[in-house]
Amino acid sequence: QELRPKSLDIKQEELGDMVEKEMASTSEAIEDAVRRIEEMMSQARNESSGVKLEVNERILNSCTDLMKAIRLLVTTSTNLQKEIVESGRGAATTQEFYAKNSRWTEGLISASKAVGWGATQLVEAADRVVLHTGKYEELIVCSHEIAASTAQLVAASKVKAEKSSRNLARLQECSRNVNEMAANVVASTKSGQEQIEEKDTMDFSGMSLIKLKKEEMETQVKVLELEKRLEGERVRLGELRKQHYGLAGGCEDQDGEARPAPAPRRGILKKPPIAQKP
């Protein structure tokens, strides 16, 4: 007990309650997301028409299917957690089981938070897209984040579950369904973006030769600027991921919570340099 990190020094009751509260909070966030999507659908039908309405409906329908898949995932995960606790706690109470397995419990809480947060971010991104104040790329990134969070939740649950557990099999099936629905959101978003861009294609037929040449040069400048910016953002993304993996590998995060260190990787043995003749 003395060797346990101070950030894990949480009362048994608090840790047990945190799991239940976080799962309930995630379920509530998903229910709220479904309601918001329905409201956006109604608003889109009133304020848009033609191609834009078709695109908005297709994107929102795919988001609704994804939310339903996530809701089933969370319900199945909750059932599996109850099964794990009942089969592993023995004579101990539920709170004592969570406290004894505090590392696993923290991973479960973190995964549940990630799923709920991803669902909320997806709805906000969809809202901005429908209102034409956001970017289609935001929806794509949110979909990828949800798929990653789902994998995290399944992995956290799988650690303590029996291999023959029916709830585990259901959870894995729900995870595959979430991934499929997330892919549908990405596909509908990309196709919708292409439709909108084709509709909004500029008409250059009325431009003079000088005006066309000027537009061409300005576009070339923008292309070079975007390529340079893209390269810089890729470098920044790489550094962010390094920092993320570093924090997840044992360093304390911003909230002071410790994270388990990953298993050390075997380094590739390098061939010693050959001595040079004088």
Query: Which CATH class of the domain at 14-197?
Result: Mainly Alpha
Oligomerization: single chain
Helix content: over 70%
| Second-tier CATH architecture of the domain at 14-197 | Up-down Bundle
Rg is 25 Å
Count of discrete alpha- or pi-helical segments spanning 4 or more residues: 7
Give the terminus-to-terminus CA distance: 60 Å
The CATH superfamily of the domain at 14-197 bears the name I/LWEQ domain
Keywords: Coiled coil, Cytoplasm
GO molecular function: actin filament binding; clathrin adaptor activity; clathrin light chain binding; phosphatidylinositol-3,4-bisphosphate binding; phosphatidylinositol-3,5-bisphosphate binding
Main location: cytoplasm
Region (Disordered): 247-278
